[in-house]
Structures are given as C-alpha cells and as structure tokens.
Q: What sequence folds into this?
C-alpha cells in the first residue's frame, strides 16, 4: 500500500532563512503535491496556521521532546493538527557505551509514557551510530528498544543501512509493529557523501518499503541532509523524489 508523502523541512533549510522564503517554499511543496510536512517546536504560530490552511498541507508528525513542563502544550498542538507522533533523536556519544544507551532508553521511555495517556506516540529517529555500536553482540538500537517498551520508531531508512552494512528490509520487518513513520532517503551509501533524490541512489527503496506493516506505518517522509547538486538546488530533489515515489506506486500525494 503506498504511503502518503510528507517532507522533513530540514531538507530545505538553506532556502527558508526568512519568513518570506519559508512561505514561498512551503507553498511550492504544496504545489508539487506533498500531503504534509514534519513540523517541530513548542509553538504553533498564527502565521503557520494560516499558511497550512491556505496551502492544504497537513502535519504528518512533530519534532519535540516531551517533558512534564511542555507535554500539555504539545498535546494541544497534536490535537489541533491531527497527528499522533512526536519525534526526537540523540547524538553519537549517547550510543557510545551500554550505560549511555540505557540512559537514553530511560529518557525516551519517560517521554513515551507522558504521551501515551493522550493517545500519542514518542518515536526515536535513528542515524548510523545506532547501528555501529555493538553491545553484547547486538546493535545499540536493539538495546534501546529492549529497555524502552513504550517507545516507537521513525526509521531513517538510509541511515539505518549504516552505509550498506545493515539489512534494512530485515530491520524494518523486525520493528514493523513499532514504526508509524519512515524517513525515505537515498544516496551513494558512502559516509560523508551527499544524498540524491529518491530513486537515484543505491537504496532498494521498493524492498525496504515492502517490509513495513501497512496497518502501522502511516507516512513516508522525504528528507535530504545534503544534496549532491548543492543544497541551493535541493528543490530539484524534492520534486524528483515526489515524482519517483508516486509513479512507482510507493507513495501517494495530492496530484
């Protein structure tokens, strides 16, 4: 089943440095046909409300770390915008040892438990370092989820490969029941090399997305950290990624 297509706005950060530029780019994303974007922060401004209402865009998910102090505000944002999933991540140092992984698990389990009574989910977003630290012969990622049973996943499909060293379809299948979101990303599978539009790199995206559970995974979220033709030209990849996902039947948009 094709996934509705969202986009992480980190992709277009170099093009949205002023409010006017941000509005122009978000309207262009809507015009391409994307269904949603991945939002973030502790506030939803009136300007954002107006822009999303006029453009027809939704929010697939939201980057924020719930705490006792901000959970009420985040619950209100989720209720207003109609999404269920909050997302956050940690740096490489937090996956350096078993002790640091266990501390991360405790932090994320606490956040997940703050959201769960409201019917909301906390999702952990991976990079490559969760799949290069071996603890007792296992990935740090596995240790994290062993010790955070309430936590869900936003699997970044490209980073999860650890540059070709991980069987990503097997990983996605293993965690399919806990993965409402995936970041759909492509590239050369070489560390420190920029990304490509979806379908133009070495990721087998059809095989990876086929491993998701259509009853659980609700969004495919396009993201590029750095574009091979320069971030100033990244809208090329935004358009090409949408075209690839919709024409191959992997994703669905508004056009």
A:
């Amino acid at each position: 089943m094709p996934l509705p297509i969202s986009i992480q706005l980190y992709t277009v950060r170099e093009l949205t440095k002023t409010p006017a530029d941000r509005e122009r780019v978000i309207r262009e994303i809507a015009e391409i046909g994307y269904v949603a974007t991945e939002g973030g922060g502790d506030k939803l401004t009136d300007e954002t409300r107006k822009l999303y209402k006029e453009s027809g865009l939704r929010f697939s998910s939201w980057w924020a770390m719930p705490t006792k102090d901000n959970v009420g505000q985040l619950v209100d944002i989720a209720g207003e915008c109609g999404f269920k999933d909050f997302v956050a991540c940690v740096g490489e140092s937090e996956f350096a040892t078993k002790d640091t992984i266990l501390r991360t698990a405790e932090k994320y389990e606490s956040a997940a438990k703050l959201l769960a009574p409201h019917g909301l989910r906390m999702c952990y977003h991976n990079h490559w370092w969760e799949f290069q630290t071996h603890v007792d012969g296992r990935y740090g990622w596995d240790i994290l989820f062993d010790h955070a049973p309430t936590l869900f996943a936003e699997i970044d499909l490209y980073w999860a490969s650890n540059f070709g060293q991980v069987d990503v379809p097997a990983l996605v299948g293993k965690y399919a029941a806990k993965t409402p979101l995936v970041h759909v990303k492509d590239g050369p599978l070489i560390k420190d090399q920029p990304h490509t539009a979806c379908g133009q790199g070495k990721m087998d995206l059809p095989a990876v997305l086929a491993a998701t559970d259509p009853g659980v995974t609700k969004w495919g979220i396009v993201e590029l950290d750095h574009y091979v033709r320069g971030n100033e030209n990244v809208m090329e990849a935004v358009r090409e990624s949408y075209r690839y996902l919709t024409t191959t039947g992997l994703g669905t948009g508004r056009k």
In short: The chain has a mean pLDDT of 97. The two ends are 17 Å apart (CA to CA). Residues 42 and 74 are 7 Å apart (CA to CA).
